[in-house]
Amino acid sequence: MDRRNSRRDAEGTSVITANRLLDGRIVWLAADGQWATLIEDAKLYPNSAVEEALKACNARAQEEALVGIYGVQVTQTASGPLPVTSRERIRAAGPSVHPDFTPDWHAPHPAPYA
Amino acid sequence: MSHSPSAALPVGHYAYDDVDRTFLKQRVAQFKDQVERRLSGALTEEEFKPLRLMNGLYLQLHAYMLRVAIPYGVLDAKQMRVLAHIARTYDRDYGHFTTRQNIQFNWIRLEDTPEILNVLADTDMHAIQTSGNCIRNVTADQFAGAAADEVLDPRVYAEILRQWSTLHPEFTFLPRKFKIAISGSQQDRVAARFHDIGLIAREGENGRPVFEVFVGGGLGRTPIIGVRLRDDLPEEDLIAYLEAVLRVYNAHGRRDNIYKARIKILVQALGTEEFLNQVNAEFAAMDRARYRLPEATVEAIRARFGAPDFAPVGNAAEKLAAQRKADRAFDAWVHTNTHPHKQPGYCSVTVSCKPAGGIPGDVTSAQMDLLADLAERYSFGELRITHLQNVVLGHLRQDALYDVWQALEKNGLGEANVGFITDIVACPGLDYCALANARSIPIAQKLSSRFANADLQREIGPLRLNISGCINACGHHHAGHIGILGVDKRGEEAFQITLGGSAGDGDASIGQILGSAMSEDETVDAIARIIDTYLSRRTAGERFIETCRRLGTAPFKDAAYATA
After folding, report:
1. Per-run averaged pLDDT (10 residues), chain B, 564 residues
2. Which one of A10, A63, B33, B352 is most buried, counting C-beta atoms within 10 A?
3. Are B295 and B152 found together in one domain?
4. Of B412, B433, B463, which one is at a domain's C-terminal end?
5. How far is CA B372 from CA A62, B79, B118, B368, B395, in A?
6. First vs last Cα of chain A: how many Å apart?
7. B156 and B298 housed in the same domain
8. Which residues of B lie inside 8 Å of A (Cβ-Cβ)?
9. Is B61 left (phi over 0), alpha (psi -120 to 50) or beta?
């Protein structure tokens, strides 16, 4: 795993993310145990508990068709968790150069880019 | 005035036969099976990753990315339409032309990939050698077979190298990726000195080609200009000699440290003389008869390339001159975006994929279809992708230029900026790439908007501006007259400026870092001040790179950090 992905302070809060095996899309572990496409739905973990949670997620990765599971440190804002690094903010929001490609799409093949 | 492909053979690229097509279909079937085994859990991600990479499939920041090979940058209209089809059907309606003359699709689904590869194979395309530690897609001069200054067509040799390297049992698991470029002109338009092997061909005394061989060049975290190993490698020894170079690299290249695994590190570690001695020893020990490249083989490969059937052009030059006189914008475009052709009355056109404020190298499916239509109608059905992320129509009659320009203009491809400051090379950066530290595209967009004024660009003159989102340097920032490198400053994006890099024309140099990294907006302002410094300090007719070399970096550094 990229070293940057595991940068977490001792004190702090993280969410857990992965890519879906089938289409590579980014997902976030929600409180109900499902993997959500929006970071707003992600469950918050104290950093002291993230590694344990990651172990459990990795054990189910094949069954849940996921790859590249890791924790992302966030700050809590009014609109939900906000990753502390620009890399993870871009992962959460979609490419900044295509505002139309936000992650909250659900169609298997989205409408053409105009 | 219109042209269609003159014969069954595709103009500009090698015609596949049943053997090639059977191989591609077998490869698709093999990958389909590998995908199924991955989905079933029979293959772990660790086991599957090298297999998907061998088929050009990366897992990037937001999705899978499929890199499709465009061997030596040449494709035909039918193939371009297939790329448009893939963009429309399986992606988000666009593709990104890369600095290795390939195309990337950023939103691919793993489960669709076997079918996409199948569609590609139906038109003799694939994604082989676009990833992994193998010999990658061989790049060639974008004006191959057309340029007035060309000595010989490098594409035939690029194809020979492709056939030699594909599935080569010794070179499928090299210490690291291996990049070869070849030019058939003394004008180095392929950045030969920045490749693992760079070849510059010229005609030898017996009328057959000889090759100048550069080895150990590269960019990335350790930028190095390649050293000349041979000045006069005969055509018949081309394969044997490259085989010898690769064998020395394969035997001694470092596999223990990915950052020291490229051949450039080995050449530096051994020293040029010792490296050359080892290559010569390997070369001398080889069964030369087995590796000889006979003239008959070269000609057999050449015979599988279609050639344009040039028609008499009549008063094409006069017509073009009148059109240029009547339309200033067209005249500016002809000035910047055309290149002299060896055939009187013809020229090559570089279609800029760098509109003001646009994403360098991105092209929509509609634009791909338009380019295919124009190629079919005016340029013998042939297109080339350049390593500077533009598209070339190789063989246009001069009296067709006005029609072509108007069609390009209407579809966002008519920018008259080739070789200017807004003809920016940029990698996908942190908007897409899992390795990137910073976004390359937004800063490219800001810079191309800042310098969009056509008169200003003309006044600044030739200037290469290259942007990489990380030290891997896919945007070739070290080779830019101005380079921008994205860095990670405690989780935030920042940018370093390099100055004085150059890729070709015998004056290869590595850009020097000006100073500490700045924010995106500070960097854009700093570059504007660097340009102001150039404009105020240049001598008559002096290009940007020449002023940099004359003055050194100090005045530009002062300007860059004046208010930062």
Report:
1. 55 95 98 97 96 96 96 97 98 96 97 98 97 94 96 95 94 95 92 96 91 96 96 96 98 95 97 98 95 96 96 94 98 98 97 97 98 98 98 98 98 98 98 96 98 97 98 96 96 95 87 97 98 98 97 98 78
2. B352
3. yes
4. B412
5. 42, 8, 21, 6, 14
6. 35
7. yes
8. 38-39, 41, 44-45, 59-64, 88-90, 92-94, 107-111, 359, 364-365, 430-432, 434, 436-439, 441-442, 445, 488, 491-493
9. alpha
Same domain as B318, residue B248:
no
Strand partners, B305: B14
Q: Do B430 and A87 touch (CB under 8 A)?
A: yes
Same domain, B111 and B241: no
Query: Which amino acid would we find at residue B18?
Result: D
How far lies B104's CA from each of A94, B2, B107, B507, in Å? 18, 31, 9, 31
* Same domain, yes or no: B216 and B117: no
Alpha helices in B126-228 (DSSP H): 155-165
In degrees and rounded to multiples of 5, residue B243 shows phi and psi of: -60, -40
Indicate if B294 and B320 belong to the same structural domain.
Answer: no
- CB contact (8 A) between residue A85 and residue B491: yes
Residues of B in contact with A113 (CB under 8 A): 92-94, 364
Helix spans in chain A (H): 47-59, 86-93
Residue B100 lies in a domain: yes
Distance between B265 CA and the closest CA of chain A, angstroms = 24
Q: Return the SS3 of B458.
A: helix
- Closest alpha carbon within chain A to B437: A87
Do B245 and B346 reside in the same domain of the chain?
Answer: no
Residues of A in contact with B63 (CB under 8 A): 19, 23-25
User: pLDDT by residue (tens digit) across B104-133?
Assistant: 999 999 999 999 999 999 999 999 999 999
List chain A residues with CB under 8 Å of B360: none
For residue B59, the chain A residues in CB contact (below 8 A) are: 19, 24, 67-68
The verdict on A75 touching B (C-beta cutoff 8 Å) is no
Residue B495 structural domain: 425-560
Asked if A2 reaches chain B (Cβ–Cβ under 8 Å), the answer is: yes
DSSP helix/strand/coil, B201: strand
CA-only gyration radius of chain B, Å = 23
Structural domain contains residue B369:
yes
Angstrom distance (rounded) from CA B31 to CA B195: 30
User: Residue B374: what residue type?
Assistant: L
DSSP assignment letter at B231: E
Number of H helices, E strands in chain B: 19, 20
Name the residue facing B45 among A25, A67, A86 (closest C-beta): A67
Strands B227-234 and B465-468, sheet pairing: unpaired
Which DSSP string do the residues of B273-334 spell out, in sequence order?
A: HHHHHHHHHHHHHS-HHHH---HHHHHHHHTTBB---PPP-TTHHHHHHHHHHH-HHHHHHH
Q: How many domains does chain B have?
A: 3
A113 reaches B (C-beta below 8 A): yes
Supply the pLDDT for residue B468.
Answer: 98
B13, part of any domain: no
Tokens 């320009």 belong to which residue? B405
**Parallel/antiparallel/unpaired status of strands B139-140 and A80-83:** unpaired
Buried b (16+ CB within 10 A) or exposed e, B156-190: bbbbbbbebbbeeeebeebbbbbbbbbbbbebbbb
Q: How confident is the model at residue A100 (pLDDT cuts 50, 70, 90)?
A: confident
Residues B406 and B539 in one domain: no
CATH number for the domain including B381?
Answer: 3.90.480.20
- Closest Cα to residue A26, out of B430, B59, B437? B59
